[in-house]
Amino acid sequence: MNIKSIALLCALIPVSMIAQETGKKQDTITSKSIQLNTVLVTGQGNTDPVLTTVKTDLLKKVVQPKNVADLFNDFNGFSLIKRGNYAIDPSFRASQYEQLNIQFDGGTKAVHACPNRMDPITTHVVPEEIERIEVIKGPYTVRYGPTFGGVINLVTQKPQSMDNGLHGRVNTGYESNGNSLVSSLSLNQVTEKYDITANAGYRDFGNYEDGDGVEIPSSFRSLDYGLRLGYNINDNQRIQAHWRQSFGRDVLHAGLPMDTEEDNSSILSIDYKKTKENGFIKELNAKV
Question: How confident is the model at residue 113 (pLDDT cuts 50, 70, 90)?
């Protein structure tokens, strides 16, 4: 048998098997139409099906975040716009700045005071306070106001998940490249009727050196503190007041033509929530 016969035999055998199998199916199987019931796809209208929730775990990070924007470094679709170690803006799928609606605790916002965005909203809250980050992709919701690229909601830690009593937490870290120091303190007093949360953080970052040994001017010092007081009126009503201040000093921006001598911000927010199991209105939220 030559090479041409082997090639012809291999080509004919599969054709013969398929023909036999097809013949069997035609003898035993008959066509029948089946009408399916209507399928309904439902979702949460408040959050939309494009909501992504990511919890933060700072213990797994080798390098401590300079500010909240560093938490987006490992998220799919996000990149960082860095002007230094202090002023960092997240970019999501090429959408940035006002194209993204960035806020924390479902409505609290801080607008930058400098056109060069030396003080974006990510500089007014410390990363240790963030419990999770919610991302609503695209212009699919107006729950938190109009947006183009998406909504980013930074959710701070809530004391309601803790047991009653006094709780505390202390974090500190040091990096040799730039002699950088990070420290934070948090205290929580929780009862069935009220809860009080006090936190403070201090950051002192120096100029770091790149791989070629070139010193990058990116040092800054920042001090943040906050106080949250929550009162449970009854099982279905709660009111909460949150006060925070942030202070930046001697901030160097490697990517800008100027630096920041001082940056001060104060934010006060009051929240009210009422839930009702029965009735047309299930939940009422108000924020000032």
Answer: confident
- The model carries a pTM of 0.72
How many folded domains does the chain comprise? 1
Residue 29 inside a domain? The answer is: no
List the CATH number of the domain containing 193: 2.40.170.20
Give me the pLDDT at residue 17, please: 47
Q: Write down the pLDDT at residue 49.
A: 52
Listed residue (149, 152, 158, 126) closest to 53, CA to CA? 152
Which one, of 268, 176, 184, lies nearest residue 222 by Cα? 184
Is residue 39 included in any domain, yes or no? no
250: Cβ–Cβ under 8 A, 6 or more apart, which residues?
Answer: 219, 220, 221, 259, 260, 261
CB atoms < 10 A from the CB of 2, how many? 6
Its domain, for residue 173, covers 51-287
User: From residue 161, how far is each of 145, 167, 209 by CA, in Å?
Assistant: 28, 12, 42
Q: For 236-272, what is each residue's pLDDT tens digit?
A: 899 999 999 999 999 999 888 889 899 999 999 999 9
What residues contact residue 245 under an 8 Å CB cut-off, 6+ apart? 224, 225, 226, 264, 265, 266, 267
Looking at residue 70, its pLDDT comes to 83
Tens digits of residue pLDDT in 42-71: 666 555 556 777 776 666 666 777 788 888
Coil, helix or strand at residue 23: helix
Concatenate the DSSP letters of all residues of 38-93 into one string.
Answer: P------TTT-TTEEEEE--GGG-SSPPSSGGGGGTTSTTEEEEESSSS-EEEEET
Q: How far apart are CA 259 and CA 240, in angstroms?
A: 37
